[in-house]
Each structure stands twice: as C-alpha cells, then as structure tokens.
Amino acid sequence: MKSAQIPGPNEPLTISESENPRPQGTQVLLKVKSEGVCHSDLHLWEGGYDLGDGQFLKVTDRGVKYPVTPGHEIVGTIEKIGENVSNVSVGDDVLVFPWMGCGECPACKVGNENLCDTPKSMGLFQNGGYADYTLIPDSKYLAKLDGVDPDAATSLACSGLTAYTAVKKANQNSPEFVVIIGAGGLGLMGVQIAREITDAKIICVDLDDKKLETAKEMGAHFTVNSKDSDTVKKILSICNDKGADSVIDFVNAPPTVKTGLAVLRKRGNLILVGLFGGSLEISLVSIPLKSITIQGAYTGNYNDMVELLDLARKGVINPVISKRYSLEDANAALEDLKARKIIGRAVINP
Ligand SMILES: [Zn+2]
Ligand SMILES: [Zn+2]
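Above are the sequence and the zinc ion SMILES. Below is the predicted complex in structure-token form.
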C-alpha cells in the first residue's frame, strides 16, 4: 500500500510504500476511494493550533506521534475482512467513523466515542486515509453508503456531523425560532438540516448578502445582515420580541456570541460550534435569571453519522466537491487549502 505521510511538523508529505496489512478478527482492509481534505489536516501538518496571544497548542502534547498518515474523512470499498466481521461484506462502499475512542471511559461506554478521554481518532492518533489502502481496527466503525455519492460523503464524517449534532442540540429545546449565525459551508448545512429535522422558523445571520441569499434558497425563513447596527432588534422583532429559543453560532467570535446572547430568550440554549476564537466578558447574573444554557458541539457519535447519511440519501444535504487530487498531489492539496485556493470541499482520490 501507498501512504502520504507527514514526517514531522511543516515537512512535506512523503509517499511511503509497505505491504498491505492482513485484517484479523474484527479488522477490515479498505481500498480508499475518496478522502476529504480538511482544515484539521493543516493543523496536524503545522504541528498544532495557534491559540492567539502568542500561544501554540502542540499536537504532540495531545499524543500525536510523527510520522503519521493524515485523513479522517474516509470513504472506501471493503477489500478484505477479518474472521469475526459480519456486519459488512467485501465489495461494500462505506464511510468510516473516524472519532474512535478507548471503549472504556464514561463517554465511550454510552456510545460517545467522539468525546473519549483518550481518543484514538484516525488520521490523527492513528494512520488515516491519505493512502490507497487503510486498515480499520473494527468493522463497527463502518457505515454503508447505499447510494450516497462517495466524494460528497467524506465531509459527513466531520463538518457535516458537527452541523448535524449542533442542530440536534438546538432541537432539544423544541424551538419555535432558531438563529443560525454564519452562512458559510457549515452554516448552510445547518440551515438545510434544521429545515428538515426541526419545526422551527430559521433566522440566518451573516455579514454577506450573497450568502444570505443562498441561505434563503436553502430553507432559511428569515435573514438578517449583521452589518446592521440594529441586528439584535431586528432578530428580536422576528421572534415576537421574546427572543430565540436556540442560537447556533457557526462563527464563534466575540461579536457573534454577543449577538447570540442578546437574542436568546428565557430558557434558551446557545450552541457554540465555530473555532474562530477569542474571549468575551458576560453578565453572569443573566445566566441564572434567564436560565440559559451555553454549550459546545464538536463532531458527533456513530449513530449521528448513520442518521446523517440517511438525510444525505434523501437529498436533504448535498456537499459540493470543487477540487480533486491524486495521492501523489497530497502536498498540493494541503498547500492549496492553506492558500485558500479551495472554494467548497476538496478530496483526494487515490
Ligand atoms: Zn475534517
Ligand atoms: Zn474512551
């Protein structure tokens, strides 16, 4: 098998060749069809996360060991299975659930391996999908595509999953009004999902009128441009001056969170998703008095991914792939992503 590996932080990826592993027990050998190129791959390549204020969070401090094969958005065809595999068969096209956990901690025990205390995520803590073949430790992490486009399915393991769990958290509040802040790729997916799985009126907020236009086409009932000085007032008047039951912030920067808190009604929940970052001072007394909940959403569990695949099969969401690379061009893919040359999503087809 051929893998594009990161030898160390900021070093060009190199193609390494090795013999195909032979799956044993519950393991599965997958022939990779499509691998999503994700911003998180860039952080792995750069060795960590810039936290602002001159602080840098190293991935090696979180347990990453180089060299590593990146790639956590993996779609492939089953090539070989171990002797204990019965839920999938050779020849099946599958999406991999990459957020694997230890299986022992409290989160894993209730099926939330994505929130594991000692994660074993593919393409991060173990080799991932920038390869022509990849070994999956357990067939329980595979979900059949059954008609979903392989390239489009890749992001359903990552950004799509995050958008889906965020909307599910909003929906726990049985909202009459949901505010979705940010009409980028993730936010628009959020609008489409919210339209399908909630009964709420959807209010989409962004700085860009063009994106808001798209949000309306995709199902937002109302749009508000946050450049307006009276954004908060406008949102409140849409919500009959009571405020929104749920706000999902796909940006998560100080001004957007401020808006989110200002339009939240009593008992409302604010779900923070974006990784823009920064910090904010909040009035503490309003939290108990309004009995509001502030929570985060990051990826999702295996069952969420299966539900999301169902939605994709129904045509509710349809991620657009704008660029395709070969495995040999993995460096170019990451360089292009870094240089913001990729609009929409890119995949590697090994
Ligand atoms: Zn990703
Ligand atoms: Zn665990």
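The chain has a mean pLDDT of 95.
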